[in-house]
Specification:
single chain, 4 domains, UDP-N-acetylmuramoyl-L-alanine:D-glutamate ligase, about 25% strand, alpha/beta, disordered N terminus, 19 helices
Amino acid sequence: MSENTQNQNPKQEQYSLNDDRRVKVLSPGALVAKRFFRNRLAVVGLSILVAMFLFSFVGGLVSPYGQDEQFFTYTQMSKEFVGVTRNDTMRFVVADGQNFGSIAQSKALEAVKKGNTEFNYKDVDYTVDIQSDDFYVVYQGRDIMGYASRDLVNEADGAPKFSFDVKLAALTAMTAGEKEFAADGVDYTLDADGNILAGGEELGYVSRLYKDSICVSGTHGKTTTTSMITTALELAGRDPSAVIGGKLPLIHGYGKAGKGDDIVIEACEFSETFLKLTPYLSVVLNIDNDHLDYYGSMGELKFAFKRFALMTQFMIFANADDKNTMDVVNSIDRPVLSFGIEEEARFRAVNIGEYKPGFFEFDVLELGEHFAHIKLGVPGYHNIYNALAMCCCVRPLGLKPEDAVRAAEQFHGTGRRFEIKGECNGAVIVDDYAHHPTELAATLATAKEMGYERVIAVHQPFTYSRTKALMDDFAAVLRQADQCVLLPIMGSREVDDGSVKSEDLAAKIPGSIVVDGLESAANWVKQNAREGDLVVCMSCGDLYKACDMMVGKA
């Protein structure tokens, strides 16, 4: 086709680049609308909005019921819960085959709170047999609907499940102070510790439901911290229950069964014992290389603490200055509240000083703000951490800072925790449970701070495996004493294979001596101790017997 032919074609028009006829120009509004209607999701959304708008006008024609009639049922349901008391201290167990739901249980609780023994729910009359403040049974006529109790009946590992009748009979017997009961054709016995036996075999036990359970874990400091928290609750009038590894004079023993909602438990890591607990609040004071004969490695020990922390229902309190502890709590998805001295923890001790030799006072800051001024009634720098752990528990337990202040000042120690037993030749004799190098270091540091002329360390090594594995650590710590006296290794659960003896440890401690037993240790002190000496006996074994000999109590 020639050039002349193209020019003669009327459909072939030549335009310039700026010719307005080449482009259809849209207004901004039209452009937005075009883009909107091209989006299918946007069109669907607009359609729903239009439909809702239209239904707001025509809905009354569709539904024959007014608003009051439409929501009458929900209004009545709400009214049913008005004034009903929340149950967080007792647990209901419903009888087999009975219909006794949560609302009826709440009505029963409400009646008991008001001192009533009868109540009505949905036109059904119920009666309540209140056998004690912690145990009552609900009846409909002569039929037992269920019971409520703070005590729980549990089956032992591997034992068959208890029926409702067995549980009820066990609690009834315990409430009445009876030692025997029968149910389901079986005769049972109930001992003082709440263990349930049949035919000499332990089949279960009775435990208590506590609203707040505080479990204190850590390689060192558990007994002191557990005792401090128990002291705070006891002095506040909370009547707690407690399980402590040492004798607390305030409660006249190693524990107590209080009537309050709190229980404080020393959570021991040995043989994974603390994994049987289910704490509401937990404390991790520190994690050190102990019990490696059982765990095999620090990794396995830390993993056990991790599992313990994961069982915590509400909050974990952790020592921010202990690396192993922070390694554990930083690896789990649980709320953690930290305490410490060196690190920027939530609860931090500052302005630390001695108000008398070996006894410390300090200010506690919570998030940088003043919380309390603490004055310790027990000696030792290490007890600052134990007191900080107690301070962490104050607010979650509903206590006040002044409760922590009072507890710290009035707590003067537990049995075998730097316990002053008396004097021998004018020398002060102290019994302490320390049996790990870290614990010995803390105890001897406290002793050296108290200004005595000489500190004499009397140590009974515990277990062959620990002594062998930590030989150099033990030696380094015991060299800090002015004189060291060693007893034979207490093997406990281990068999002596002859591979390690106290003489091996003594060889690393200049001037140390080895005696052959408790009586020899006591005689050495009687012959060599003098006024101005502090004799610190350190062992988790039976060295306390030698202490009694030293002060003339045995």
